[in-house]
Amino acid sequence: MLGLGISGLAACRALIASGKSVWAWDDSAAARGTADSAGIPLFDLAGADLASAAALVLSPGIPHTHPHPHPVVARARQAGCPVIGDGELLARARIRAECVGITGTNGKSTTTALIGHILQAAGRRCAVGGNLGTPILALDALDPTSVYVLEMSSYQLELTPNLVFNTALLLNISPDHLGRHGGMEGYIAAKTAIFRDGGPSATAIVGADDAACRRIGRTIAASGRRRVVFISGQTAVPGGVYALDGTLYDDRGGGRQAVLDLAAAKALPGVHNAQNAAAALAAALALGVSHSAAAEAIASFPGLAHRQERIAVIDGVLFVNDSKATNVDAAVRALACYDAIYWIAGGRPKEGGLAGIEPSLAPVRAAFLIGEAEADFAATLAGKVPVQRCGALAQAVAAAARAAWADRRRAERAAQPVVLLSPACASFDQFRSFEHRGDVFRTLVGELQR
Fold first, then answer.
1. Active site residue: 64, 108, 324, 350, which one?
2. Per-residue model confidence as pLDDT tens digits over 55-82
3. Which residues are annotated as a binding site for ATP?
4. d(Cα 247, Cα 219) in Å, to the nearest integer?
5. Which end of the chain is less enclosed by CB atoms within 10 A, N or C?
6. Binding site listing
7. 131 is catalytic
8. How far apart are the first and last CA of the chain?
């Protein structure tokens, strides 16, 4: 096992519990210390005889192709040792439960959690995890009547060649992680691996709101490999499941049926969440859940932390934590949800920076910029919206709150002002993770209430 983060440790524990001999290693001394304290046997894989190993199980964060493979991965391949991920170990365990897999550039976690919420509310036993929350090999063992609901990143899918998803979802594709996949073509190939195998009885649920996914869906449908259900958050899709004018519809049988007024789903604002709801509904229906049970569960969904999370309303201003928005496409989706936005953005920029943001800036009253992207974002936004360069999140929250409260006091402003953290950047310049960034934001907003 190379990489001893949360998923790596879970894989080690599962393998040891099944009687396997495990060599575990991490380049981080701190991670090795955690593993040693947990009783995981450590062995420097730089000197291991990898030809004698059944497999090298790789943490998904470790590169195995681009920009260049980790040296241990290169040695494993030279020795003929398979390089796999924890999802492939689940496949090798010959599980009997049904598997639902969810991928896409944005919306994976919300859709995964929402599918799990619907199934649990409908009385179906399920285990929810993968790239979201609980690692795959830390999930409970399930019987054939139960369902694994797994969020799968592009990194994980590349390392999972034999896990078959009876119901597989591809929500959307936009440029992300291109350095790890050798460009857009490699990224798309990794995402579409979720549709491997399956057969005509299996379901492919594919977003219809971007051109790349539409092409992929049409290709799968033409091949006959799976039944394809297109989903949309904004457009009628004949034969699919979609949201239109605030209502969720099922049109799989050729005569559309209204399922839910999305105004009842308070934790799912915006067009992007309408697509997430359509995707979750399509998956639930494919798994035999009734329209009424699915609608009731979608309406009661509490949402996820750091994803359009409503933190507080203070003196008429809403504070929203969307720290999970680590790329510009995710930020665009958040900006479409509100009418008077005081936008906190910045961090470690992704490739392309804020390219494509201009059509989404109409509701932005001002931008408050932080982190490594601050100067570049300021240049991109200059002349389009008022900009304040704040450096750090604490300064940005304070400045955005002052501006939003001043807006609220102006009688001519009818829309509720919103202080929105939707960074369009990774967090690693100033924070340990997007969760850490969101937690700090939550704390700072709490301090405003004192």
1. 108
2. 999 998 888 887 889 999 999 999 999 9
3. 104-110
4. 29
5. C
6. 104-110
7. yes
8. 48
